[in-house]
UniProtKB/TrEMBL annotation:
Enzyme nomenclature, EC number: 1.11.1.6
GO cellular component, one term: cytosol
Source organism of the structure: Hyaloscypha hepaticicola
Function: Occurs in almost all aerobically respiring organisms and serves to protect cells from the toxic effects of hydrogen peroxide.
Stretches for region Disordered: 1-41, 519-539
Annotated Basic and acidic residues bias: 18-34
GO molecular function, one term: catalase activity
Name assigned to this protein: Catalase
Active site residues of this protein: H89, N162
Amino acid sequence: MQKALGRATEAVTSAMESNKKAADMKSEMKEPTSKDPYTSDFGVKGITHDTWLSASTGDRTGPALLEDGFGREKIMRFDHERIPERVVHARGTGAFGTFKLYESASDVTSAGVLTDTSRTTPVFVRFSTVLGSRGSADTVRDVRGFAVKFYTEEGNWDIVGNDIPVFFIQDAFKFPDVIHSGKPEPDREVPQAQSAHNNFWDFQFLHTEATHMFMWAMSDRGIPRSYRMMQGFGVNTFTLTKNDGGERHFVKFHFTPTLGVHSLVWDEALKLAGQDPDFHRKDLYTAIDMGVYPTWKFGIQVIPESKQDDFDFDILDATKVWPEELIPVRYIGEMQLNKNVDEYFTQTEQSAFCTAHVVPGIGFSDDPLLQGRNFSYFDTQLSRLGVNWQELPVNRPVCPVINNNRDGALRHTITKGAINYWPNRKSAIPPSSAEQGGYLDHPEKVVARKQRLHSAKFSEHFSQAQLFWNSMSEVEKSHIINALGFELDHCDDPLVYERMVTRLCDISLELAQAVAEKAGAPTPEKTGKPNHGKTAKGLSQFDFTPEAMGLPATIASRMIAIIIGDGFNFAEYEAVKGALSAAGAFVFTVGPKRQPVKSSTGQSVAPDHHFEGMRSTMFDSLYIPSGEHVKVLMKQGRVIHWVREAFGHCKAIGATGEGVSLVKMACELPGMLFSQGESGEVVDCYGVVTAAGVGRPTGVTEALKMVKGAK
Ligand code: HDE
């Protein structure tokens, strides 16, 4: 793919030249050239890459000699090249970028990163799936991790978030249980990277506080089209503080993509998991490499401490959103990713996040999930990377780090001097006051009894699950029904799927009945907890299309395939390709082979891919120019499948002239109409071209209705 697009990296890297983190990483980079000789790890030039020293007799290899230090070093080092994968979020990919503040939040915080609009703060972001192993597929149904490391002038600040604003549990104590239930079942170690199994749904039923979150995971949010097209949420409740002692505020963090929130359809996601397990990884890499930098608006929701009890939910409960009608999101900054990593292992795999990393002006709340996370992340880095994990290039701050640390496995910094303790006779490394920029802990008053308990509001588990369901559009609702239908179909214990259907009655009887049919459970007749009927904005994805957000809709970075064969119309091919590329789309030519294909007027075009090498799932849209090629293509099952599949996935399909006949033949359904003007204008297959323009239905059923209306 990359080759076809032509890389824009050179131009792009200049964007990072003035970036402090980029400069910091550069100091450790080396790029061997063909002139650099090969050496052993201890620096001695080697004379071979290939042959072990052996006791050879004459011209034949003999027994290998243990003595070969070069050979032993090479193999033994290789034996230890793997580090433990993350216990959750093992599969991920990352990129560097920048954060710019456009509105100061100095009314609520003293944090430089959130008050100084003249700064550009370097960031590193790692996106991930939760359940799968490091080699699992990108497009599985799962929650996505959205971890951001801000390299601020006052130290590192990590928001270790997800693409879903709530979580399965309210208290960190339960984390091993929810993760064990989702990971492969321990007896046979199946399934990989799937929640579709007995254990997961058994836990979800028995653990009612997970109800809200599983609805999000079963919605289209669980299968994003791209990491670049999903929201990020800090999930937990943090606090913002001011050095002048002003009122403390509770805060939730939001990242909203300017490209809009978009998802795959389930059939696409399933197929892509096999056809291109790196789909999201490549998508991010390609967009950045081509200079189409993914950008997110950064927002905060704040609640003054004095108002913390004003809501019918507990604001420290991570299974609840703060509805935007009550607490609007205030967008104050923008994050852009503009530099790919140079090396996956050192930069992405060794990146390590920690919720306890906050900078002056930002603090924690008593959210019991966050409190446990603050312990867990540091702890996990110790076993994954060792005690000196914060010295690794991707993890170290851009401001000075001066402390009494020495020693530990793989210590990197060489600290001179005899002092490694405080107090010391030289007054070396004194602590800082708040005025000098020292971290000031908020003097929270705590009068407490030692006990295991949450506030009464924590025990309400269904209200926001109903709010979420009620706020979905019809098409989103049908996707949730299908997702639950799929998941429960993979549970073979009737106790699991039958009980889950009864749980759905606590959200909506309509939902429960529709899922019961698919799952094979008795159809419920009575609602569980009555649905309150309320809705809220900011829950449906349709609230985050570029149009809904007042941002320009764009096809930039969308993948478009032009289908050709011998005899295609070159003028049309060139014109459409040129127009799409000019609008920023990534355009690929797909033909019967990668060897050149001839147009009707004699020009040769070498396709980027052939029909068997790629599939329609890897593209957002197709275009078929007119020409003699169509006659042949119409006889090829794979080509018909390409078009039919794209149509089934509700993708825009363009065609001109004879190309329209191919689309019609592949996609014609009873009652479906295709517009074809006299001059053979573009047909929008999931839309309808009428005198009024192109309609945009949300699925085939609606398209059929529109077609009937258009007649
Ligand atoms: Fe994590 N989580 N988590 N988590 N989490 C980890 O830390 C943990 C939770 C999230 O790209 C681990 O470095 C506990 C919520 C992301 O490197 C581990 C609890 C949210 C990542 C850990 C939670 C997250 C992790 C494993 C319950 C969304 C990947 C490897 C209290 C706000 C970060 C690691 C990356 C990773 C613990 C719950 C997001 C074990 C105990 C809620 C994005 O420390």
